[in-house]
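Thanks for the sequence, V.! I ran MFS transporter right away. Repeating your input here for the record:
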Amino acid sequence: MASSLTKDSVLPGTPGSEKTFFGHPRGLATLFMTEMWERFSYYGMRALLPLYLVAPGGLHMSAASATAIYSVYLSLVYLLAMPGGWFADRVLGPRKTVAVAGAVIMLGHLTLALPWAGSFFAGLGLVAIGSGLLKANISTMVGHLYKGTDDPRRDGGFTIFYIGINLGAFAAPLVIGTIGENVNWHIGFALAALGMAVGLAQFLLGSRHLNPRSDLVPTPLSAEEKAATLRKSAMWAAVAVVFYAIVGFSGVYTLNWLLVPITVAGLLIPVAVLVRIKRDKELDRADQSKMTAYIWFFVAAAVFWMIYDQGGSTVSLFAEKSADNSILGWDFPVSWYQSVNPVMIMALAPVFAWLWVALARRGKEPSTAVKFAMGLLLVGASFFLFLAPLAIADGGHKAAALWLVAIYFVQTVGELTLSPVGLSVTTKMAPAKYASQMMGVWFLAVTAGDATTGLLSTAGVNLNKTGIVALEAVLAVIAGVAVWMYRKKVKELMGDVR
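Predicted structure:
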């Protein structure tokens, strides 16, 4: 990236000249590359995961078990973002936490590369922990690079950072997916470890360009709090070890003994967090009203992500078994479908950004509730579209690849009407007391959606059946219509937030 560094103008009081990254603080290059390589490792492994779980040369599981594991893994990544933020705020600070996260992720991928089922699940756990630690803190460090919220470069910096995410996500299935599917699954997972190693190395080398604020621990634990936290952690760890030892030695252990508690926690914890905030008596009436409105957005987002994230499990497993994965006679790996979304995001995100601004100038920009309703209707439409290739497969034929590309396209358009808007409204509606926690609360919507998918799969529901797909599509449409019908009420509850 050295060739993209240019000389910035000399600021008053600044000795000499300062190298920048496309006119932004040089530390942005460090964080851009770190996130790009971390996403390369994450999305590469994610593209292989459900395929490896069902493959005869992999773990040879059923589609339902593979979907359950995939969904539980995703829900854990987003669930752990909140404790990841807490760990940086109270223990290590963002920079050291991200360095630790990178090492844990790399170790997790290396563990996945080992050819044993037990080590595979340990590796998944390590990657989930590391991703939770990193996800919560790297965006915070991007914000630290700028002088307050009024810095005119701030939004552009996050846009460049977002491009890094999607570059990594786009390249990963093409590289890691191809090697994993066509050469060796475990070499594919090892490549994911290599990607994270590159990202970690350049982060450590370039961390001198980060803002000194990223080294600070905002609210460090006292000695008493540290001791209490360690005691509680040790107690819960001991309870888990004893419980699973009893279950294991009794001979009744199955994978559901692990998956079901996690999926239940993925549903109960988001509800508990929202209830705790809503019942906080320190919040004034305006904040209480905003939180009531936010619950509408949270539930809508959970329904959206429940369907959307099945693009990497339900739809991918359908493609592996029942699609003609070729274009003009040229065959391609199933994992390549996972590159469709990031390349479409990069192509369409600027269009949507321009569209909202253009509509706002004319006073016609849809409200947040209407945008959420659009996202739900579109993700529902994507699963109605899914019914066509399912019907083709039921007729004994292979569905064309373009059917699946169309599903991912519709989901991507839906994502762009809901996900960036959700991130924005979360920061706007957050009560001051919970300002630093609300982004973690938003991620819990993903946890709730994926946990629902995981719970259905652990119950033995085949999500690739026409009836189930149609039911999910109808659910999303009903949710979208409900949000649209109550849009004026939600707008009133939002108060001065627009």
